[in-house]
Design brief:
This protein is an alpha/beta fold. The chain is 34% helix and 13% strand. The chain has five helices and five strands, in the order βααβαβαββα.
């Protein structure tokens, strides 16, 4: 199955970073394409996008200053199918992408994505201020996974993503 292409560019406000694409995303070639994934609704409800986008429009969000990548490019049924070797390689590739493109914020879509990338034992929701960022000058933000399997109530998830919206509004 083909990898889902990154949507990255210089000057982005936020790059959303997932574990890896779902099988459905791999089939369609777009990020967060599984219909049970709430990502696009979360972006709209948090204010990060002006309307509800479809996964097929993921490339259009570059114009809004939003980009997409993953720590591992290979689509799988679940993150448990990613090998240790893929994570090790993915950490370096992701670090290189963040260094090259230098988004203002790297938003990790799930605590596990952040802890896997940084090798830190834990994380709180929101901006990670207690330790220096892995890539100098790129602020790190941890948001809940948008997977339909997440048990956190949707209003709580949206409120965490809304912190990104508020930051962007205050700092642009």
């Amino acid at each position: 199955m083909d990898e889902v292409p990154d949507h990255l560019d210089h000057g982005l406000q936020i790059v959303f970073i997932g574990f890896n694409p779902s099988l459905r995303s791999g089939e369609l070639g777009h990020h967060y394409a599984n219909p049970r994934n709430h990502f696009w609704r979360i972006l709209e409800h948090s204010g990060l996008t002006p309307r509800l986008y479809d996964a097929s429009e993921d490339g259009e969000l570059l114009r809004l200053g939003l980009g997409f990548t993953n720590i591992v490019a290979r689509p799988t049924r679940g993150a448990e199918d990613i090998t240790r070797g893929e994570y090790a390689e993915g950490r370096q590739i992701l670090r290189d992408k963040l260094t090259r493109y230098r988004p203002e914020i790297a938003c990790f879509v799930g605590k596990g994505v952040y802890t896997e990338f940084t090798r830190r034992a834990k994380a709180d929701w929101g901006f990670q201020e207690e330790q220096p960022p892995i890539v100098d000058g790129v602020r790190e933000f941890v948001a809940p996974s948008s997977s339909g399997l997440v048990r956190m109530p949707m209003p709580e998830i949206v409120a965490i993503y809304h912190r990104l919206y508020e930051y962007i509004q205050e700092n642009t």
